[in-house]
Specification:
The protein is α+β, with helices and mostly antiparallel strands. The strands form 7 sheets. Strands 3, 4, 5, 6, 7, 8, 9, 10, 11 and 12 form a 10-stranded antiparallel beta sheet that branches. β4 and β5 (64-66) form a beta hairpin.
Length: 680
């Protein structure tokens, strides 16, 4: 019999008991939330690394009863499903007592509709994962713990199946999960950011995104094994260096994918607030740079190659990491590799058209890629623009100018060859007039490639792809991609259409969060336009259950709600400069905050006087400076604005293509009242 592993070690920290970090992992995470408050009730993270099931589901109708610590398996009860109530991941252990020989099978699934005697698919091959087996050879008691390499990264349901030639009765008790994600944190609930609004659904979605990103932050040596295991699974692959790293999904692929990080990193920063895993993920991509300067599409042990877009996402991810963390040592260490990577991809720009000609055609899931693909050109523009910023940080102003000039030339080429003025959106390719993709058009607005008029036109065109449960992607027909939709919601906010952005968040992410077969706690990789969980089934995925139900690339609403509803965004290293530009939509109030090395950033606003006024409070570190663009009140061109007791009259201005009352706010704590001027 195998002894029950140590599931939790407790130590007295600051007067309260805290759970230890993952096994031998050093504890480097925060001990307490940066912003404790009532909103903590939305936080899905467990309070302990030892988590037990919440309910027992009966077979058939899958009705539930409260889990009281034990279940009985017998010839009359051959299967029991344990529901943890939310997405969990890690090592399962249990105790048992049996009056004879029996075999107990263990299977794990994320979605209720795949519950059964076999686990959902995760190994990446064409064969099923199957189940693990506990062989009880004689009467008595014992314990069982899942081997480390069989760690299950993401699931909600554990199915126990029974067989016995002797008719034995088995009592299974003390079923526990040792949580394996966020391995350097002793307190999994110690978020460094928060969000709350007048809409309960949005609050839950924000925290579902944050929790998803926690489940995607994993111990270094728990990646999916390559070569892929057949008829089982193995999560013992080495993903990089350090103690923690951010990957694409909890259940699978459990590898670094830089494209996914384009959404995951901003959302992780503004919510959970942990950047060590981001640095390790980026570093491993540079460590495996190819001789020609290209970067892998995915990190080790997979090391998939030949993606121009994911190559560039690593470079954009470098900008995001340096912006949020001000880690100039990381930038200096990798600068030569960064420059080589820029030259590699820019060498594919066609001299005649000035557009990138894509040859590394692997991408997020879209059906077509190559030639002068518009999505790839939007990403190249962002790469050059952010590269110019980073070059200044390392003191190379001349190179910064070169990147700026290249970006300007590419901007002209994009709008010359890819914009369809008669339709009001970007084509998928310079020669393709049939497809107007969701990804390129959303990214064009997000990356500031467009005019205000183009933003409004694109926003209107994108809505034409919607159905009742989300935005159907033209470049992946029949599918809804929360990854690309994460960029779309940002584009609607940036076009000044907050109601449209909030509508899409509710109809897509809200639909999944409330789905009876979902995890009720995380964000899904993707789904079909008819609402079935069969993302990319028959287009590379071996089974419908292979879909990840905790995928960080879908966590876009988390950063978008902080940046555009609360209105706070970092614009300079670690928040030395920031912006405050809230958008109310149909909400009555909102508040939120996040933390950088400089300190805490927090803002709250509320509408009053039947919409004729609103107030906000803002607190940012001393020595920082913010640019504010405040919403118009009652449509007025002018407003009376009282800042810390001093009143002035402000007129509407256009800043960053949006209208509002513009002012500068210095670091510190401020109270502001914006009022309609009666008679104007």
């Amino acid at each position: 019999m195998k002894s029950l592993g140590l599931l939790a070690v407790f130590s007295l920290v600051g007067g309260s008991w805290a759970v230890s970090c993952w096994r031998e992992t050093p504890c480097t995470g925060p001990l307490e939330p940066a912003f404790p408050g009532d909103w903590d009730s939305y936080n899905y993270a467990p309070s302990s690394r030892s988590v037990k099931p919440k309910t027992v589901l009966s077979s058939g109708a899958l009705s539930s009863t409260v889990y009281d610590g034990s279940v009985v398996l017998s010839a009359g009860i051959p299967r029991v499903v344990l529901d943890f109530g939310l997405e969990v991941g890690g090592i399962t252990s249990l105790r048992y007592t049996s009056d004879g020989a029996a075999v107990i099978g263990l299977a794990w699934t994320e979605a209720k509709n795949w519950v059964g005697s076999d686990s959902d698919y995760s190994n990446g091959g064409s064969t099923p994962d199957g189940h693990l087996t506990l062989n009880i050879t004689e009467p008595g008691s014992g314990t069982y713990e899942v081997p480390l390499e069989k760690l299950r990264g993401g699931f909600r349901y554990l199915t126990l199946s029974y067989s016995s030639s002797t008719g034995a009765v088995v009592n299974v008790s003390d079923v526990l999960i040792e949580i394996g994600f966020q391995p350097t944190w002793s307190n999994l609930r110690a978020y460094q950011g928060y969000f709350r609004s007048s809409d309960e659904t949005l609050n839950k979605i924000w925290y579902a995104g944050a929790y998803t990103l926690q489940t995607n932050t994993v111990p270094i040596k728990t990646g999916r094994a390559i070569p892929m295991v057949r008829n089982s699974w193995s999560n013992n692959g080495t993903l990089g260096n350090g103690s923690t790293i951010i990957v694409d999904g909890a259940k699978r692929d459990r590898a670094v994918w830089p494209g996914d990080m384009g959404v995951a990193v901003p959302s992780a920063f503004y919510s959970v607030g942990e950047l060590e895993s981001v640095a390790n993920a980026l570093q491993v991509m540079y460590d495996y740079q190819n001789g020609d300067g290209s970067l892998p599409e995915a990190g080790p042990p997979l090391l998939q190659q030949d993606s121009d877009t994911y190559h560039m996402w690593t470079l954009i991810g470098t900008y995001n990491y340096v912006l949020y963390g001000n880690d100039t040592n990381f930038l200096a260490h990798n600068w030569d590799r960064y420059r080589r990577a820029i030259e590699y991809v820019y060498g594919k720009v066609d001299e005649k058209s000035g557009l990138l000609s894509v040859t590394g055609t692997r991408d997020w899931a879209r059906w077509g890629q190559g030639s002068n693909n518009s999505e790839a050109n939007m990403i190249l523009y962002r790469t050059l623009a952010t590269g110019s910023y980073l070059a200044v940080l390392v003191g190379d102003n001349a190179l910064s100018g070169i990147y700026t000039d290249r970006a300007a030339a590419l901007l002209t080429a994009i709008n010359t060859y890819l914009w369809d003025s008669s339709y009001g959106a970007f084509r998928d390719n310079a020669t393709d007039v049939r497809l107007y993709p969701q990804d390129a058009n959303s990214l064009a607005v997000v990356f500031n490639i467009t005019s205000a008029e183009q933003d409004r036109s694109i926003s209107s065109r994108l809505v034409e792809n919607w159905n009742d449960i989300g935005a159907v992607s033209p470049e992946l027909p029949g599918h809804i991609s929360p990854f690309i939709s994460s960029f779309e919601i940002q584009s609607h906010f940036l076009a000044g259409n907050a109601p449209r952005a909030l509508d899409l968040i509710r109809r897509s992410w809200g639909w999944y969060l409330n789905h009876p077969n979902g995890t009720g706690s995380t964000v899904i990789e993707g789904y079909l336009e008819d609402g079935s969980f069969a993302y990319r089934f028959n287009r590379g995925y071996p089974h419908a259950s292979y879909t990840s139900h905790a995928h960080g690339w879908s966590a876009g609403p988390t950063s978008a709600l902080t940046n555009h509803v609360v209105g706070l965004t970092v614009t300079g290293p670690a928040g030395q400069t920031w912006s405050f530009a809230p958008q109310f939509g149909d909400l009555e109030f909102a508040e939120g905050g996040f933390t950088t090395a400089l300190g805490k950033f927090q803002a709250s606003w509320a509408i009053g006087n039947a919409g004729k006024s609103y107030s906000f409070n803002i607190a940012t570190p001393a020595g920082t400076e913010g640019s504010a663009l405040l919403p118009r009140v009652s449509g007025s061109r002018e407003a009376k604005i009282t800042i810390d007791g001093e009143t002035g009259i402000y007129e509407v201005r256009t800043v960053n293509k949006l209208e509002g009352y513009a002012l500068t706010i210095h670091g510190g704590t401020h109270s502001v009242l914006v009022q309609e001027i009666v008679g104007t």
